[in-house]
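Model it.
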Amino acid sequence: MNRYLLLALFSLITLLPVATYAKISLTAYSKEEALHERNLSKPRIVIQNTGNRPVHGFSFLYYITTEKGSRPIVDNYYVPNARVSLEKYGPGQYAVRYDVPGVTLHPGESYPDDNGCVVGIHYPGWEPLSKRNDRSCNFSDILVYNPEISVYTNEPSRPKHGRYAPHSTHSTNATIDIEIQR
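Modeled.
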């Protein structure tokens, strides 16, 4: 009996730390493809599973601030298997929201691939657009880590990457203005 008890205890001691180490981690990388254009922002975003377990379904937000009460237009250039919408948080405060419910990312995999997804953001009359006040714009011409893009899994509560949204993405304080179609 003692032999079986010792074997069970040894198994628990060796396997328990491995079981508690499983973690979910999604990391956002981005670049600005329209660095030298005055009336267009074109963020290219890659979401990578940097954890050690698969993640099924996630959302991410790219934050922008408009000038003079303008309302941005979002053009979906390439965002596969996702619903893209524009959320308003307050005067001039918006987020482009990407909901990706049917995609599973295994450890090391990227959404949609290593090249990323891309939208275009501009004003209705193509007026000049300042990127300097857009929280998520990193002014990089290569894909780099971006802590200003919040990434959420289907598991509730805190984002798995990035800073908190001005309000929680599950809050009634944000309203979806329009769903963006490709």
